[in-house]
Amino acid sequence: MSAPRTMALSDAPYAPTAIEIAALEKIKEIVGPKGWTSDPSAMEPNLVEDRGLFHGRAQMVVKPTSAAEVSGVLKLCNEAGIPVVPQGGNTSLCGGSVPFETGNEIVLSLARMNKVRSIDPLNYTMTVEAGCVLQFLQEEAAKADRYFPLSLAAEGSCMIGGNLSTNAGGTNVLRYGNTRDLTLGLEVVLPDGRIWNGLGSLRKDNTGYDLKHLFVGAEGTLGIITAAVVKLFPKPRDIRTAFCAIRDVDAAIELLQRARAESGDSVETFELIPRLVIDLVLKHMPDCQDPLGEQYDMYTLIELVTTSDNDTGIEERFEAILGAAMEDGLILDAALAQNETQRQEFWKLRENASESQKIEGASIKHDVSVPVASLPAFYKAAAEAISKVDENARIVAFGHAGDGNLHYNVAEPEGGDSNAFVNRWDEYNRAVHDVVVSFGGSISAEHGIGRLKRDELAHYKDPVALDLMRTLKAAIDPNGIMNPGKVI
């Protein structure tokens, strides 16, 4: 694939056909005056990808308020051949939520479909609309004394529809699973306007194909998710957090398996953080501090939870686990959060990792996963592969070690030429992804494919799997209007 970059937009606007113009006018009637805009300045936030790699155009941004309105819009677009780009919070990191530069598409934003339809505390479920911001759902679950565990850096702006469409992961996958694992049912509008009401809240339903899994992770290429039934869990009563300096990545995996076994599998978070991440955060982000007195090469951020008010021994168990690991040389130093303020101080170092890289300069990001047991060997092999491309490139590899997902980013050399670095995008991609695949891993762990990784998917994915994906796409979206040019 070519190095992605913002493409120059032509001065000439797209010229819609008479059929398209008629369809667009009918769409305006369906969603009402507050439900659409074609003003360039008003559309701008919906046209630019979060990292600025892609900047597209659209005939119109449409914001329906119901599945019925989405149905009417898609039916018209399908008949007129107008491509549709579904969009939630537009926090995609792979260009999946923005239109191309051609200007012939419309963006369909779910932002006004933002209601919690119901919460069932006894069934541990919540029925939500696709435009609900993730943090809002976490807060609504907490009001019902329940816990919605999906958590990621963009939770203050990303929407659950986008989380579902990309099968988002985050920091709690180790204990609760990806978004797919948190989903019981969906409401989906198909390309021809039909509405599939699959909002079931059953844990067991063996009546044929489990259709929801077609749409979770499909990035809007098969239809538009308008609502979902998601799982809730008992609300954590106590969370214990430690920031540990560790011997190496091997020690991290040994510590992980010990912590899971000796805590009754109550490890919620296990993040791997190299020293370079700490240095970049301290350099660029205010109000952050190093939790430990000395500097070390590698760290982990670990959290244990309990959902029982009667579990008074979690602190003692955690200290025993860490103490034994320190005696055995796995942990070199550690700090335990004594209160919520200290806990948040630890999290600042992890949550500001990406932003500090952006300030530091150009970086080529890889969202990859390998089997957890293979992480140490992968870490070493990938570093060797990068050094063959440029021995001065800086490796900023951090992330969700507990589920085998690393954000294996490569930063430009200090004082280097950013343009020259980015122009070698293909070389860095191939170096990292070849190693990932050699370990039986995935080139996209939680960010999706979108536009950015489409060629990479075609290169690495099993040909039979790709053929099945294309068959499904052709069967469900024969006119190819749903987010064309993304994923496959």
Oligomer: single chain
Q: State the major sheet.
A: 5 strands, antiparallel
Could you tell me the radius of gyration in angstroms?
Answer: 23 Å
Rounded average pLDDT: 95
Which residues form runs of ≥5 with pLDDT under 50?
A: none
The helix tally amounts to 17
Overall morphology: globular
> How many individual β-strands?
19
User: Which structural class best describes the helix and strand composition?
Assistant: alpha+beta
List the strand order in the largest sheet. 5-6-10-8-9
Distance between the termini: 14 Å
Summarize the topology.
Layout: H1 18-31, E1 36-37, H2 40-43, E2 60-62, H3 67-80, E3 84-87, E4 106-109, E5 116-120, E6 125-129, H4 134-143, E7 146-147, H5 160-166, H6 173-176, E8 183-189, E9 195-198, H7 212-215, E10 224-231, E11 233-234, E12 238-246, H8 249-262, E13 267-274, H9 275-284, E14 298-306, H10 314-327, E15 331-336, H11 340-351, H12 353-360, E16 363-364, E17 367-369, H13 375-389, E18 394-400, E19 405-411, H14 418-422, H15 425-438, H16 454-460, H17 463-476
Parallel strand pairs: 2-4, 3-4
Antiparallel strand pairs: 1-2, 5-6, 6-10, 7-11, 8-9, 8-10, 12-14, 12-15, 13-14, 16-19, 17-19, 18-19
